[in-house]
Amino acid sequence: MITLNHYLIVSSILFAIGLVGIIRRKNLLMLFFATEILLNAVNIGLAAISNHYGDLTGQMFAFFIIAVAASEVAVGLGLLILWYKRKGTINLDSLQSMKG
Description:
About 75% of the residues lie in helices and about 0% in strands. By secondary structure, the chain is mainly α.
């Protein structure tokens, strides 16, 4: 039987994977993927705790996090495409050399 602890362990493993992805960031696309993994890990934890206690509050927060993540991806990918057209790369090292 799957218990709350199993969901929280999966959530914490996903959160750790997302943190490693953010720390090891090499390009912007992987940074976006890592933040999505972080947000989904939080969603799993919120939904599991909400289901365990029989309260819908955690699931409502997870729904709003999904909405914020979708808008973040839409704006972020737009900026990413603009940056790629301008610089020809999406490496974060190229962000260090921003010149006016």
